[in-house]
Amino acid sequence: MSKVSKADDDLRKLLSEKRIKGIEDRQVGSEVFDSMTLKTLYKLSKMGHIHILKGAISTGKEANVFKGYNKDNELVAVKIYRVRSSDFKKMQYYIQGDPRFNVRTSNKRQIINTWVTKEYRNLMRAYEVGVNVPKPIIAKNNVLVMEFVGDEEGNPALPLRQSKISNPQEVLEKIVDYVKILYKDAKLVHGDLSSYNILINDGEPVIIDMGQGVLVNHPVSMELLNRDIDNLVKDFKKLGIHITKDEIKSKIMDL
Ligand SMILES: Nc1ncnc2c1ncn2[C@@H]1O[C@H](COP(=O)(O)OP(=O)(O)OP(=O)(O)O)[C@@H](O)[C@H]1O
């Protein structure tokens, strides 16, 4: 059997087994599950990382996040970047200043795949120094599989902006601590930190969405760190906590 017809066959099998929920929904189906993405999902399913893909947890600007189960029936989160609606210019800009990726291409798929690898590596770097992030499992093409953040029944944790927290001061201190560990130990700046990208799981903050994260020697790292801190000041002001940008910055920099 030729390579192409084998891939077609694999796809048909995946679809006929109805292991991907939502694929029947034409709109979601055509935009997210293009044939390359289906092939990638099939490969991941063969590797045991995704056995069943359930409904979407979120439909963001550039990616959809689904709940899934791996072959051992453990919950996973599957983030699929939509090739059609991704902001390639932004991705290219951040990738080009990053010495970890020597990619000089305008090929859209290649840019997305590099972005997904970047998100995986940033999450791993953060995870390894003890920051509370979803543990990354695998990045393949435009698909990232990671630990599911939520309860055992499969209810995903809510973002900070939608959560009711009784201990905002404590949560802020933990987040500032994570930003500091990221900066000092992982040499990373999140770059898109806000109440959208902090989930509250059983009262604990979990930092997500690290695709934009840059190394501290990236030309825009300071600008991004300042913006992250500004966002924390604004978001926690809404929760009744008054802290200045300089106070947070001096905690992070040990001034
Ligand atoms: N590991 C995870 N476990 C559970 N839920 C998750 C996980 N990762 C992401 N989510 C959910 O999916 C949402 C979107 O995730 P994320 O911010 O990574 O994607 P995004 O496409 O960059 O979002 P946007 O385009 O809206 O900025 C989160 O707000 C959260 O509700």
TrEMBL record:
Homology family: Belongs to the protein kinase superfamily. RIO-type Ser/Thr kinase family.
KW Heme (keyword) present: no
Annotated keywords: ATP-binding, Kinase, Magnesium, Metal-binding, Nucleotide-binding, Serine/threonine-protein kinase, Transferase
Name the UniProt record assigns to this protein: non-specific serine/threonine protein kinase
Source species, domain of life: Archaea
Gene3D superfamilies, alphabetized: Phosphorylase Kinase, domain 1 (3.30.200.20), Transferase(Phosphotransferase) domain 1 (1.10.510.10)
Pfam families: RIO1
Taxonomic lineage from the root: Archaea, Methanobacteriati, Methanobacteriota, Methanomada group, Methanobacteria
